[in-house]
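Researcher: Let's try something more involved. This one mixes different molecule types, so please make sure each is placed in the same coordinate frame as the others.
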Amino acid sequence: MIRYFHRALAATALLLATSPLYAHTIVGNRVFPATLTIDDPGVNDELALPTFSYLQSANPDGSLGPVSYSLGWEYAKTITPDFGLSIGSDGYTWQRNPKAEGWSNIETEAKFAFFQDPAHEFIMSAAVSAEIGNTGSSQSASLPSDPFSTITPKFFIGRGFGDVSADWVRPFAVTGEVDYSIPTVTINSDGSYNPTVLTYGASLQYSLLYENSFVHQLPDVFNRLIPAFEGIFSTPVANLGPADPDDFSTRDTTGVVGPSLYYIGQYFEIGVMAQIPINRASGSHVGALAVLDIFLDDVAPTSLGKPLFSAPLSPLAHY
Amino acid sequence: MKRIFSLIAVGVALMLLDGQAFAHAFLDHAVPGVGTTVAGSPVELELTFTEDIVPAFSGVHVATEGGAAIAAGKAVPGPANTLHVRLAHALKPGTYVVTWHVVSVDTHHTQGSYKFTIAP
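Model: All components are placed in one shared frame. Result:
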Protein backbone atom coordinates (compact mmCIF):
# COMPACT_ATOMS: atom_id res chain seq x y z
CA MET A 1 0.00 0.00 0.00
CA ILE A 2 2.85 2.33 0.83
CA ARG A 3 4.35 1.55 -2.55
CA TYR A 4 1.01 2.39 -4.21
CA PHE A 5 0.92 5.61 -2.27
CA HIS A 6 4.38 6.55 -3.44
CA ARG A 7 3.52 5.78 -7.07
CA ALA A 8 0.24 7.70 -6.91
CA LEU A 9 2.07 10.55 -5.26
CA ALA A 10 4.64 10.46 -8.04
CA ALA A 11 1.90 10.57 -10.69
CA THR A 12 0.22 13.47 -8.93
CA ALA A 13 3.56 15.23 -8.55
CA LEU A 14 4.20 14.74 -12.26
CA LEU A 15 0.92 16.45 -13.09
CA LEU A 16 1.50 19.23 -10.59
CA ALA A 17 5.11 19.68 -11.70
CA THR A 18 3.92 20.34 -15.24
CA SER A 19 1.28 22.85 -14.18
CA PRO A 20 1.60 26.07 -16.11
CA LEU A 21 2.70 29.60 -15.59
CA TYR A 22 -0.15 32.00 -16.12
CA ALA A 23 -0.51 35.09 -18.26
CA HIS A 24 -2.69 36.61 -20.98
CA THR A 25 -1.53 37.80 -24.36
CA ILE A 26 -2.87 40.15 -27.03
CA VAL A 27 -1.78 39.62 -30.65
CA GLY A 28 -3.60 41.76 -33.19
CA ASN A 29 -7.24 41.71 -32.15
CA ARG A 30 -6.90 38.40 -30.32
CA VAL A 31 -6.85 38.11 -26.56
CA PHE A 32 -5.33 34.79 -25.55
CA PRO A 33 -6.43 34.15 -21.95
CA ALA A 34 -4.18 32.71 -19.27
CA THR A 35 -5.22 29.11 -19.73
CA LEU A 36 -5.20 26.64 -16.88
CA THR A 37 -3.51 23.55 -18.28
CA ILE A 38 -0.86 25.21 -20.44
CA ASP A 39 0.72 28.64 -20.46
CA ASP A 40 -0.46 31.19 -22.98
CA PRO A 41 2.05 31.98 -25.76
CA GLY A 42 3.09 35.51 -24.79
CA VAL A 43 5.06 37.48 -22.21
CA ASN A 44 3.24 39.73 -19.74
CA ASP A 45 3.18 41.70 -16.53
CA GLU A 46 0.83 39.68 -14.40
CA LEU A 47 0.26 38.15 -11.01
CA ALA A 48 -1.56 34.83 -10.80
CA LEU A 49 -2.71 34.66 -7.22
CA PRO A 50 -4.01 32.28 -6.28
CA THR A 51 -4.01 29.30 -8.55
CA PHE A 52 -6.05 26.41 -7.19
CA SER A 53 -5.87 22.73 -8.01
CA TYR A 54 -7.88 19.78 -6.75
CA LEU A 55 -7.16 16.24 -7.87
CA GLN A 56 -7.97 12.81 -6.51
CA SER A 57 -5.55 10.02 -7.32
CA ALA A 58 -6.18 6.30 -7.67
CA ASN A 59 -4.07 3.38 -6.59
CA PRO A 60 -3.28 0.61 -9.10
CA ASP A 61 -5.67 -1.76 -7.27
CA GLY A 62 -8.52 0.72 -7.78
CA SER A 63 -8.64 1.99 -4.23
CA LEU A 64 -8.70 5.69 -3.45
CA GLY A 65 -5.29 7.36 -3.58
CA PRO A 66 -4.14 10.69 -2.20
CA VAL A 67 -6.51 13.64 -2.56
CA SER A 68 -4.63 16.90 -3.09
CA TYR A 69 -5.60 20.55 -2.80
CA SER A 70 -2.99 23.15 -3.68
CA LEU A 71 -2.76 26.94 -3.80
CA GLY A 72 -0.02 28.35 -6.01
CA TRP A 73 1.13 31.68 -7.41
CA GLU A 74 3.20 33.21 -10.17
CA TYR A 75 4.55 36.69 -10.90
CA ALA A 76 5.57 37.57 -14.47
CA LYS A 77 7.58 40.66 -15.42
CA THR A 78 8.40 41.95 -18.88
CA ILE A 79 12.00 43.06 -19.36
CA THR A 80 11.36 44.14 -22.96
CA PRO A 81 8.02 43.90 -24.80
CA ASP A 82 9.07 40.47 -26.14
CA PHE A 83 11.13 39.09 -23.27
CA GLY A 84 10.00 38.35 -19.74
CA LEU A 85 10.98 36.65 -16.52
CA SER A 86 8.71 34.93 -14.06
CA ILE A 87 8.85 33.31 -10.67
CA GLY A 88 6.23 31.12 -9.08
CA SER A 89 5.39 27.89 -7.39
CA ASP A 90 2.70 25.27 -7.12
CA GLY A 91 2.62 26.68 -3.60
CA TYR A 92 1.19 24.85 -0.66
CA THR A 93 -0.44 21.44 -0.96
CA TRP A 94 -2.81 19.84 1.52
CA GLN A 95 -3.26 16.12 1.05
CA ARG A 96 -5.72 13.62 2.48
CA ASN A 97 -5.52 9.80 2.41
CA PRO A 98 -2.95 9.85 3.85
CA LYS A 99 -2.76 13.27 5.45
CA ALA A 100 0.28 15.32 4.47
CA GLU A 101 1.15 18.87 3.52
CA GLY A 102 4.05 20.91 2.27
CA TRP A 103 5.47 23.67 0.07
CA SER A 104 6.45 23.05 -3.54
CA ASN A 105 9.72 24.22 -5.02
CA ILE A 106 10.15 27.68 -6.52
CA GLU A 107 10.17 27.85 -10.32
CA THR A 108 11.71 30.57 -12.49
CA GLU A 109 11.37 31.08 -16.22
CA ALA A 110 12.81 33.23 -19.00
CA LYS A 111 10.53 33.55 -22.03
CA PHE A 112 10.99 35.17 -25.44
CA ALA A 113 8.19 35.80 -27.94
CA PHE A 114 10.32 35.46 -31.09
CA PHE A 115 7.55 35.75 -33.70
CA GLN A 116 4.34 37.78 -33.75
CA ASP A 117 2.05 38.43 -36.70
CA PRO A 118 -0.82 40.68 -35.55
CA ALA A 119 -2.69 40.46 -38.87
CA HIS A 120 -2.95 36.69 -38.55
CA GLU A 121 -3.15 36.65 -34.73
CA PHE A 122 -0.16 34.31 -34.72
CA ILE A 123 2.56 34.08 -32.09
CA MET A 124 5.41 31.72 -31.20
CA SER A 125 7.55 31.80 -28.07
CA ALA A 126 10.31 29.83 -26.43
CA ALA A 127 11.28 29.60 -22.79
CA VAL A 128 13.57 27.87 -20.34
CA SER A 129 12.38 27.24 -16.81
CA ALA A 130 14.16 25.97 -13.73
CA GLU A 131 12.42 24.35 -10.80
CA ILE A 132 14.94 24.87 -8.03
CA GLY A 133 15.42 21.88 -5.75
CA ASN A 134 15.12 22.19 -1.97
CA THR A 135 13.30 25.53 -2.11
CA GLY A 136 10.05 23.99 -0.86
CA SER A 137 9.41 21.90 2.23
CA SER A 138 12.37 20.02 3.63
CA GLN A 139 12.86 16.29 3.26
CA SER A 140 11.63 15.76 6.81
CA ALA A 141 8.23 17.31 6.00
CA SER A 142 5.19 15.09 5.49
CA LEU A 143 5.05 16.25 1.85
CA PRO A 144 8.64 17.13 0.94
CA SER A 145 9.59 19.01 -2.21
CA ASP A 146 11.93 17.54 -4.79
CA PRO A 147 15.53 17.75 -3.51
CA PHE A 148 16.82 18.21 -7.05
CA SER A 149 16.36 20.87 -9.72
CA THR A 150 14.65 20.36 -13.07
CA ILE A 151 15.48 22.31 -16.24
CA THR A 152 12.74 22.58 -18.88
CA PRO A 153 13.01 24.05 -22.39
CA LYS A 154 9.57 25.04 -23.68
CA PHE A 155 7.89 26.01 -26.94
CA PHE A 156 4.58 27.86 -27.28
CA ILE A 157 2.31 28.67 -30.20
CA GLY A 158 -0.95 30.57 -30.56
CA ARG A 159 -3.17 31.27 -33.55
CA GLY A 160 -6.48 33.12 -33.74
CA PHE A 161 -8.72 32.74 -36.78
CA GLY A 162 -9.98 36.31 -37.05
CA ASP A 163 -8.56 36.57 -40.59
CA VAL A 164 -10.75 33.75 -41.92
CA SER A 165 -13.65 34.85 -44.15
CA ALA A 166 -16.28 32.58 -42.57
CA ASP A 167 -17.75 34.53 -39.67
CA TRP A 168 -18.49 31.45 -37.56
CA VAL A 169 -14.79 30.50 -37.57
CA ARG A 170 -13.41 33.91 -36.60
CA PRO A 171 -13.95 33.67 -32.81
CA PHE A 172 -11.94 30.42 -32.63
CA ALA A 173 -8.30 30.23 -31.55
CA VAL A 174 -5.86 27.48 -30.65
CA THR A 175 -2.80 27.46 -28.43
CA GLY A 176 -0.22 24.79 -27.73
CA GLU A 177 2.81 24.08 -25.57
CA VAL A 178 5.56 21.44 -25.62
CA ASP A 179 8.02 21.01 -22.74
CA TYR A 180 11.00 18.72 -22.19
CA SER A 181 11.81 18.40 -18.48
CA ILE A 182 15.29 17.24 -17.53
CA PRO A 183 15.95 16.49 -13.85
CA THR A 184 19.46 17.35 -12.71
CA VAL A 185 19.57 14.18 -10.58
CA THR A 186 18.64 10.94 -12.32
CA ILE A 187 18.65 8.46 -9.41
CA ASN A 188 17.57 9.29 -5.86
CA SER A 189 19.26 8.07 -2.70
CA ASP A 190 16.51 5.43 -2.25
CA GLY A 191 17.23 4.01 -5.71
CA SER A 192 14.14 5.47 -7.41
CA TYR A 193 14.48 7.17 -10.80
CA ASN A 194 13.65 10.71 -11.87
CA PRO A 195 12.54 10.38 -15.48
CA THR A 196 12.99 12.87 -18.27
CA VAL A 197 9.47 13.91 -19.24
CA LEU A 198 7.89 15.21 -22.44
CA THR A 199 4.86 17.36 -21.67
CA TYR A 200 2.47 18.60 -24.32
CA GLY A 201 -0.89 20.30 -24.29
CA ALA A 202 -3.29 22.41 -26.28
CA SER A 203 -6.40 24.53 -25.97
CA LEU A 204 -9.26 25.20 -28.37
CA GLN A 205 -10.92 28.50 -27.53
CA TYR A 206 -14.11 30.17 -28.68
CA SER A 207 -13.89 33.85 -27.78
CA LEU A 208 -17.23 35.49 -27.07
CA LEU A 209 -15.12 38.59 -26.46
CA TYR A 210 -14.03 38.44 -30.10
CA GLU A 211 -17.49 37.55 -31.39
CA ASN A 212 -18.98 40.54 -29.60
CA SER A 213 -16.48 43.02 -31.05
CA PHE A 214 -16.17 41.76 -34.60
CA VAL A 215 -18.90 39.29 -35.57
CA HIS A 216 -22.13 39.61 -33.61
CA GLN A 217 -22.99 41.74 -30.63
CA LEU A 218 -23.83 39.72 -27.53
CA PRO A 219 -25.66 40.47 -24.26
CA ASP A 220 -23.35 41.99 -21.64
CA VAL A 221 -23.48 38.87 -19.49
CA PHE A 222 -21.66 36.87 -22.21
CA ASN A 223 -19.38 39.34 -23.94
CA ARG A 224 -16.33 38.93 -21.71
CA LEU A 225 -16.31 35.13 -21.65
CA ILE A 226 -14.00 32.70 -23.41
CA PRO A 227 -15.10 29.07 -23.18
CA ALA A 228 -12.44 26.52 -24.10
CA PHE A 229 -11.54 22.87 -24.12
CA GLU A 230 -8.00 22.03 -23.14
CA GLY A 231 -5.71 19.31 -21.99
CA ILE A 232 -2.17 18.50 -20.93
CA PHE A 233 -0.28 15.22 -21.10
CA SER A 234 3.05 14.01 -19.72
CA THR A 235 5.01 11.08 -21.09
CA PRO A 236 8.19 9.87 -19.39
CA VAL A 237 10.69 9.37 -22.20
CA ALA A 238 14.03 8.51 -20.58
CA ASN A 239 15.55 7.26 -17.34
CA LEU A 240 12.36 5.35 -16.62
CA GLY A 241 13.67 2.86 -14.09
CA PRO A 242 12.56 -0.75 -13.72
CA ALA A 243 8.90 -1.66 -14.31
CA ASP A 244 6.85 -2.97 -11.39
CA PRO A 245 4.09 -5.41 -12.43
CA ASP A 246 2.00 -4.47 -9.39
CA ASP A 247 2.15 -0.76 -10.05
CA PHE A 248 1.36 1.84 -12.71
CA SER A 249 3.82 1.55 -15.55
CA THR A 250 6.68 4.00 -15.39
CA ARG A 251 6.01 4.47 -19.10
CA ASP A 252 2.39 5.55 -18.64
CA THR A 253 1.29 8.83 -20.14
CA THR A 254 -0.67 10.81 -17.63
CA GLY A 255 -2.83 13.81 -18.25
CA VAL A 256 -6.06 15.68 -17.84
CA VAL A 257 -8.54 17.16 -20.30
CA GLY A 258 -11.67 19.17 -19.78
CA PRO A 259 -13.85 22.19 -20.43
CA SER A 260 -12.84 25.55 -19.06
CA LEU A 261 -14.32 29.03 -18.88
CA TYR A 262 -12.51 32.37 -18.62
CA TYR A 263 -13.91 35.78 -17.69
CA ILE A 264 -11.75 38.68 -18.93
CA GLY A 265 -12.27 41.75 -16.76
CA GLN A 266 -10.66 45.18 -16.91
CA TYR A 267 -7.95 44.33 -14.41
CA PHE A 268 -8.15 40.60 -13.93
CA GLU A 269 -9.16 37.25 -15.32
CA ILE A 270 -10.95 34.44 -13.54
CA GLY A 271 -10.65 30.96 -14.98
CA VAL A 272 -12.16 27.64 -13.91
CA MET A 273 -11.77 24.16 -15.35
CA ALA A 274 -13.02 20.64 -14.73
CA GLN A 275 -9.97 18.41 -15.09
CA ILE A 276 -10.84 14.91 -16.22
CA PRO A 277 -8.04 12.33 -15.77
CA ILE A 278 -7.30 10.43 -18.98
CA ASN A 279 -6.52 7.18 -17.14
CA ARG A 280 -6.26 5.73 -13.65
CA ALA A 281 -2.60 6.67 -13.39
CA SER A 282 -3.70 10.31 -13.81
CA GLY A 283 -6.47 10.31 -11.23
CA SER A 284 -9.66 8.65 -10.13
CA HIS A 285 -12.30 11.39 -10.35
CA VAL A 286 -12.93 14.75 -11.97
CA GLY A 287 -10.80 17.43 -10.36
CA ALA A 288 -10.81 21.20 -10.62
CA LEU A 289 -8.46 24.04 -11.53
CA ALA A 290 -9.03 27.75 -10.98
CA VAL A 291 -7.05 30.98 -11.20
CA LEU A 292 -7.37 34.65 -10.40
CA ASP A 293 -4.97 36.43 -12.73
CA ILE A 294 -4.29 40.12 -12.12
CA PHE A 295 -3.28 42.17 -15.18
CA LEU A 296 -0.50 44.37 -13.80
CA ASP A 297 -0.12 46.09 -17.19
CA ASP A 298 -3.67 47.40 -16.68
CA VAL A 299 -3.49 47.90 -12.91
CA ALA A 300 -0.21 49.84 -12.90
CA PRO A 301 0.54 50.71 -16.56
CA THR A 302 3.18 53.35 -15.86
CA SER A 303 5.17 51.52 -13.21
CA LEU A 304 4.97 47.84 -12.30
CA GLY A 305 3.06 46.92 -15.43
CA LYS A 306 5.39 48.08 -18.20
CA PRO A 307 8.56 46.55 -19.60
CA LEU A 308 11.79 47.65 -17.90
CA PHE A 309 13.31 48.52 -21.27
CA SER A 310 11.23 49.60 -24.25
CA ALA A 311 11.08 52.42 -26.75
CA PRO A 312 8.18 54.83 -26.13
CA LEU A 313 5.16 53.82 -28.15
CA SER A 314 4.01 56.14 -30.89
CA PRO A 315 0.27 56.83 -30.98
CA LEU A 316 0.31 55.72 -34.59
CA ALA A 317 2.30 52.57 -33.99
CA HIS A 318 0.76 49.16 -34.25
CA TYR A 319 1.43 46.79 -31.39
CA MET B 1 -0.35 30.64 4.27
CA LYS B 2 0.54 34.02 5.74
CA ARG B 3 2.76 34.64 2.74
CA ILE B 4 -0.12 33.88 0.35
CA PHE B 5 -2.55 36.22 2.11
CA SER B 6 0.10 38.97 2.21
CA LEU B 7 0.61 38.69 -1.54
CA ILE B 8 -3.17 38.70 -2.15
CA ALA B 9 -3.42 41.87 -0.04
CA VAL B 10 -0.69 43.52 -2.12
CA GLY B 11 -2.48 42.59 -5.34
CA VAL B 12 -5.83 43.92 -4.15
CA ALA B 13 -4.17 47.12 -2.89
CA LEU B 14 -2.57 47.65 -6.30
CA MET B 15 -5.95 47.24 -7.98
CA LEU B 16 -7.54 49.77 -5.65
CA LEU B 17 -4.72 52.29 -5.89
CA ASP B 18 -4.91 52.63 -9.66
CA GLY B 19 -8.52 53.12 -10.65
CA GLN B 20 -8.02 53.80 -14.35
CA ALA B 21 -7.76 51.07 -16.93
CA PHE B 22 -5.16 51.59 -19.65
CA ALA B 23 -5.12 48.80 -22.17
CA HIS B 24 -6.01 47.85 -25.71
CA ALA B 25 -9.36 49.35 -26.67
CA PHE B 26 -11.74 46.91 -28.32
CA LEU B 27 -15.28 47.56 -29.49
CA ASP B 28 -17.63 46.92 -26.58
CA HIS B 29 -20.88 47.63 -28.39
CA ALA B 30 -22.28 49.66 -31.26
CA VAL B 31 -25.55 51.17 -32.53
CA PRO B 32 -26.64 49.62 -34.87
CA GLY B 33 -25.17 46.52 -33.19
CA VAL B 34 -22.35 44.41 -34.58
CA GLY B 35 -23.80 41.80 -36.93
CA THR B 36 -27.40 42.91 -36.34
CA THR B 37 -30.27 43.68 -38.71
CA VAL B 38 -32.24 46.87 -38.16
CA ALA B 39 -35.55 48.00 -39.62
CA GLY B 40 -34.60 51.45 -40.93
CA SER B 41 -31.60 53.62 -41.61
CA PRO B 42 -29.90 55.07 -38.55
CA VAL B 43 -29.20 58.79 -38.42
CA GLU B 44 -25.77 58.15 -36.93
CA LEU B 45 -23.49 55.33 -35.83
CA GLU B 46 -22.36 55.00 -32.23
CA LEU B 47 -19.32 52.93 -31.27
CA THR B 48 -18.39 52.37 -27.62
CA PHE B 49 -14.97 50.99 -26.72
CA THR B 50 -13.71 49.04 -23.75
CA GLU B 51 -11.06 51.61 -22.79
CA ASP B 52 -10.41 55.34 -22.93
CA ILE B 53 -9.40 56.42 -26.44
CA VAL B 54 -7.62 59.37 -28.04
CA PRO B 55 -10.16 60.86 -30.49
CA ALA B 56 -7.49 62.69 -32.50
CA PHE B 57 -5.98 59.35 -33.54
CA SER B 58 -9.27 57.51 -33.97
CA GLY B 59 -11.64 57.24 -36.92
CA VAL B 60 -14.60 55.41 -38.45
CA HIS B 61 -15.29 54.60 -42.10
CA VAL B 62 -18.57 53.28 -43.54
CA ALA B 63 -18.93 51.42 -46.83
CA THR B 64 -21.34 49.16 -48.62
CA GLU B 65 -20.60 45.43 -48.59
CA GLY B 66 -19.20 45.93 -52.10
CA GLY B 67 -16.74 48.54 -50.86
CA ALA B 68 -18.38 51.78 -52.00
CA ALA B 69 -17.75 54.54 -49.46
CA ILE B 70 -20.75 56.06 -47.66
CA ALA B 71 -20.69 59.79 -47.02
CA ALA B 72 -20.47 60.43 -43.31
CA GLY B 73 -19.18 63.03 -40.92
CA LYS B 74 -16.00 62.84 -38.90
CA ALA B 75 -16.06 60.65 -35.80
CA VAL B 76 -16.96 62.85 -32.86
CA PRO B 77 -16.10 61.78 -29.32
CA GLY B 78 -18.86 61.37 -26.79
CA PRO B 79 -18.92 60.35 -23.16
CA ALA B 80 -17.87 56.89 -21.98
CA ASN B 81 -15.31 56.02 -24.69
CA THR B 82 -17.85 56.58 -27.46
CA LEU B 83 -17.45 57.78 -31.04
CA HIS B 84 -20.45 59.19 -32.96
CA VAL B 85 -20.52 59.30 -36.76
CA ARG B 86 -23.37 61.20 -38.40
CA LEU B 87 -24.48 59.80 -41.78
CA ALA B 88 -24.88 62.29 -44.65
CA HIS B 89 -27.89 60.46 -46.10
CA ALA B 90 -30.33 57.76 -45.13
CA LEU B 91 -28.98 54.31 -46.02
CA LYS B 92 -30.79 52.04 -48.42
CA PRO B 93 -31.62 48.46 -47.39
CA GLY B 94 -28.52 46.28 -47.57
CA THR B 95 -25.42 45.26 -45.66
CA TYR B 96 -22.83 47.83 -44.60
CA VAL B 97 -19.29 47.49 -43.31
CA VAL B 98 -18.03 49.76 -40.54
CA THR B 99 -14.25 49.96 -40.23
CA TRP B 100 -12.78 51.60 -37.13
CA HIS B 101 -9.36 52.39 -35.77
CA VAL B 102 -8.63 53.81 -32.35
CA VAL B 103 -5.67 54.56 -30.12
CA SER B 104 -6.12 53.93 -26.43
CA VAL B 105 -4.70 56.43 -23.97
CA ASP B 106 -1.66 54.21 -23.39
CA THR B 107 -0.97 54.59 -27.17
CA HIS B 108 -1.92 51.05 -28.19
CA HIS B 109 -3.48 51.00 -31.65
CA THR B 110 -6.39 48.71 -32.43
CA GLN B 111 -8.55 48.39 -35.49
CA GLY B 112 -11.36 46.25 -36.76
CA SER B 113 -14.53 46.09 -38.75
CA TYR B 114 -18.05 44.77 -38.46
CA LYS B 115 -21.22 44.54 -40.53
CA PHE B 116 -24.80 45.55 -39.95
CA THR B 117 -27.80 45.13 -42.22
CA ILE B 118 -30.78 47.32 -42.95
CA ALA B 119 -33.79 45.16 -43.70
CA PRO B 120 -35.73 45.77 -46.94
